[in-house]
Amino acid sequence: METKVKKLSLEPYKGTRDFYPQDQFVQNYIFSVWRKVAESYGYLEYGASILEETGLYRAKSGEEIVNEQTYSFTDRGGRDVTIRPEMTPTVARMVAQKRKELTFPLRWYSIPNLFRYERPQRGRLREHWQLNCDMFGVDSIDADVEMISLAYDMMKAFGAKDGQFEIRINSRKLMNALWKYHYRLDDQQAYKMQKLIDKKDKITNFQEQADEICGFPFEFVKSEGIVEISAQQPFIKDGSYQFYQVVQKLNKAGIKNVVPDVTLMRGFDYYTGIVFEMYDTNPKNPRALFGGGRYDDLVGIFGVEKISGIGFGWGDVTTRDFLETYNLLPEYKPLIQLYIAHLDGYVEDANKLAHYIREQGINVEVDLTDRQVSKQVKTADKEKIPFVLVVGEEEVKSQKYKVKSLAKSEEKLLEKGQISEFVKR
Amino acid sequence: METKVKKLSLEPYKGTRDFYPQDQFVQNYIFSVWRKVAESYGYLEYGASILEETGLYRAKSGEEIVNEQTYSFTDRGGRDVTIRPEMTPTVARMVAQKRKELTFPLRWYSIPNLFRYERPQRGRLREHWQLNCDMFGVDSIDADVEMISLAYDMMKAFGAKDGQFEIRINSRKLMNALWKYHYRLDDQQAYKMQKLIDKKDKITNFQEQADEICGFPFEFVKSEGIVEISAQQPFIKDGSYQFYQVVQKLNKAGIKNVVPDVTLMRGFDYYTGIVFEMYDTNPKNPRALFGGGRYDDLVGIFGVEKISGIGFGWGDVTTRDFLETYNLLPEYKPLIQLYIAHLDGYVEDANKLAHYIREQGINVEVDLTDRQVSKQVKTADKEKIPFVLVVGEEEVKSQKYKVKSLAKSEEKLLEKGQISEFVKR
Description:
The structure is a homodimer.
Chain A lengths: L20 H20 L3 E2 L5 E3 L1 H6 L2 H7 L1 E4 L5 E4 L4 H10 L8 E5 L2 E3 L11 E10 L4 H17 L7 E7 H11 L4 H12 L7 H9 L8 H10 L1 H19 L5 E3 L13 E7 L7 E7 L14 E7 H10 L12 E5 L4 H12 L5 E3 L6 H10 L4 E5 L1 H6 L1 E6 L4 E6 H9 L1
Parallel strand pairs in A: 1-5, 8-9, 13-14, 13-15
Antiparallel strand pairs in A: 2-4, 3-4, 5-7, 6-7, 7-12, 8-10, 10-11, 11-12, 15-16, 16-17
Helix pairs in contact in A: 1-5, 5-10, 6-10, 7-8, 9-10
């Protein structure tokens, strides 16, 4: 019983991607570098569902995100649900839930996919994958230093050089002190300025809007200026001290491409301390590769005792752009090592041999078609599989197989027990 | 600027799961076995977005699934979208899209998460992860045999024994011939019977409903009966021949726990040939672990030339139940190998040492708190990290470190260049 069908689209849903094996290969490469470095620092992997109740984001992500950018809907049981736009609220919820059983400090990572309803453009899609690394239960700025060092080591593991990227850093604590004691704004003005600065690159009349919010001609303080202002105001001093100490400690640990930047804000409402973002120095790739910060009050929104947190998110889309720009992506190689073709009537023998070789740790694909042997071998070639052999009457009788290396065009007659060794070396 | 917040739930969304590191460990174990065996057969990984346009499922998944069981909604741009309830329509779409560039036959796998709106119960949640293995472009039943062999090898790789599971197998082609030539039902009656049989375990009045659809007392044919009926009717013979040949070939390849079962139907409308499911032989775990079949007309619904396909899906929830039942899950072990504690003021030295040891391929966690050393060491113990060392004045001076094995309570004084070797062995 067929349902009459309109012409179906062959495209993925707008702003999302299909990952064909060659794309998935790149994706897996990026994930594997992230995983390896995160695990080398002792971060443990966790995971969660892509659906959460909408209230979770209302609390602290920021109004714009929930009202304009999320995929939210009501489920068949009347619950308001959202496809996660970010992972931090989820991890804070998980930490709050099991805070009595967990051993602090916690170092956790995950590579979730996230959704934002946006106009797709370079470096920005509706769905992307994002490495999230978070640490809970450490108040000291050594945590801030580790977070940035970890991300830096990941850049190095990708093969990036210092001159190709820079880490910009700011402090919400410093900014809050500046709003209050330097610019003398009230809370509402300060919040509006924070939001305005966050979107300054997307608007054309930043200065005009800033002046209107402040009621005077707004001007960013210069780095040198902060030192001077700090000398007179203890809260500003407090914020800037912490801020410069992080930069200093990073420099001492060999990380020199860190740039203080009071124009760096980040979109989420929950940040309370250091915030940072990493940029390609190439102006053609103007999006942040990763960003994060300290959010000491987030776990507390669940009505439990406060647990300090810090973390970052690092998207796959901008990373891929970066690695392509600097030619840092590995060449595609299938994981298949040996292709077995067969003469008509010998597919069961081919399967038996494949089974035997697989048990020795080799990935073997068997051609199951009844095409000519030459066509079968051509398939292996197109798929870039390095070795191929043919099973037929002669091979079954002699129990010897000609294994051909496609790259080197060499051929060797081997017993079945020798094949895996030959393929491995 | 705080938004006033109602009490936020600590629980994940109904019918979904949080994966704390120990749960993620199990999940990663299951995925790694799937991956390893799939890759050993030459299957390549692909991926896609969890959102698809709703029309994709209207076409062939079956009305009940789209109307009652999917998470569907209209996006902010007016598009009808669905969170995927299954992966097969997506992979068929991807194959149809790039059919001109792809090298057939294709062997592909993916481990997507899927959503169904259902009442959560044992073995059945709203979100689950599912291995999908598919082959495109092979008409011969050798593909059917490989699919089932692949799944069987995965069960073996999990450590399952033949007596613990059985593979039930049926043929839609055989069933269609039986409906028409044996039961003499029209297309509509046949479709209704197919749907009824699919849900027979969830309803109490199967017989009553079956009799009503057929207009006579319905009785399943017995296996022996099929042979007899086949002798008289060529289409039934055709269906049953193919069906028994698969069983025979599997037996010949050493897979004996295959059971022909004319009551096996599967829910999707798109199957055209062999269908199969794998069951725990333990009646306490009555859900299928995996199921699949041949769907030769699915790629064609996109208005392109026909490409035959066959595949299966294998869920993580029932798998975890199975592995727990038979005690086949590995014990939890963190990936962290060494924990570095430190005396007050020596955190930078600890970090420096950690950096050095990480470069030798060891996963090292540094305690960044200012707690007493004994408390820091206790954290390592709780986290089950096998080795620990402390950095303080003495260690920095002598450049020698006491590395303690927590399991064996042994301790060794080592230079920094010797630590990674000691931890690795």
